[in-house]
Specification:
With 261 residues, this protein is mostly helical. It is 82% helix and 0% strand. It is built from eleven helices and no strands. Helix 4 packs antiparallel against helix 5, helix 4 packs across helix 7 and helix 10 runs antiparallel to helix 11. It is flat.
């Protein structure tokens, strides 16, 4: 007796669920739960991390991400306008910048600004300025393309209608096009904030004092001190405290945008 396509799909899903349950049962039977608890869920180590992991590391992580995002958004907006400019040199500069910073790792930017620039020019950059520039320069390249796509997604009739009412091109762009474009690009810009939050872990390269630690650096330092993976697990969970609400916000914004369309 041959099975229908729907029956085969149900059978295949059932087999997958059975394999998954069997794997979980085998893992539960053979795992050394005592060792796992000491390695990942040491209560004494976890207690020793608080409240500094919240009041210092989590706060600094959010601060570094917002700092880089703010600078990147401003620069990204300028680059997007240059990318759409009718003046060829502006477009060429914007394209060169975007392709360069999208093509190199953020790690190299941190190393260049944290060590290369001070050594080459014999200047000392403030740590917050270094973080802002490092995260912002990379983020701006991605945000510029996002904003450009949002501007181009606004119907041209909107701009033409504004011009017919006597608005200058600049005023029409600011008053009519940009508000609509930002409603379109708000979800991907929020995604960029999530990425910058995770990229803020690269700040450890700069050699931070204890009061400047972010989550990754705090977790690594506590790992060396306590010889347990519990600090890394808790640091990861605290990253989720930031990124999961932002991810939920992205989904809500995408749903609202789709409904508006």
């Amino acid at each position: 007796m041959s099975l229908s396509r729907r029956q085969r799909a149900r059978l295949f899903r059932g087999v997958q669920y059975a394999v998954l349950v069997a794997a979980l049962v085998v893992f539960a039977l053979v795992a050394d739960w005592g060792t796992l608890r000491e390695a990942f869920f040491d209560i004494d180590v976890a207690k020793a991390l608080f409240p500094e992991i919240i009041t210092t590391a989590l706060v600094n992580t959010a601060f570094y991400a917002v700092l880089g995002f703010g600078f990147g958004l401003g620069l990204g907006l300028v680059l997007a306008m240059m990318r759409l400019s009718s003046v060829p040199p502006y477009r060429w500069l914007a394209i060169a910048y975007i392709e360069f910073f999208r093509g190199i790792p953020a790690l190299l930017v941190f190393i260049s600004l944290g060590f290369g620039v001070p050594l080459a020019f014999e200047i000392a950059l403030d740590m917050n300025v270094t973080v802002m520039l490092s995260l912002g320069l990379v983020g701006a390249a991605y945000m510029a393309e996002t904003i450009r796509a949002g501007i181009q997604a606004v119907p041209k009739g909107q701009l033409e209608a504004a011009r017919s009412l006597g608005m200058s091109p600049g005023r029409a762009m600011v008053s009519i096009v940009m508000p609509q474009a930002f409603r379109i690009v708000l979800p991907p810009l929020t995604n960029e904030l999530i990425l910058l939050t995770k990229d803020s872990s690269l700040v450890y390269l700069l050699g931070l004092s204890l009061g400047q630690f972010e989550l990754a650096n705090f977790g690594r330092d506590a790992l060396n001190e306590h010889k347990s993976l519990t600090p890394i697990l808790i640091a990861g969970l605290l990253y989720l405290v930031i990124t999961l609400p932002l991810g939920h916000l992205v989904r809500r914004l995408e749903a609202r945008t789709a409904k508006a369309r």
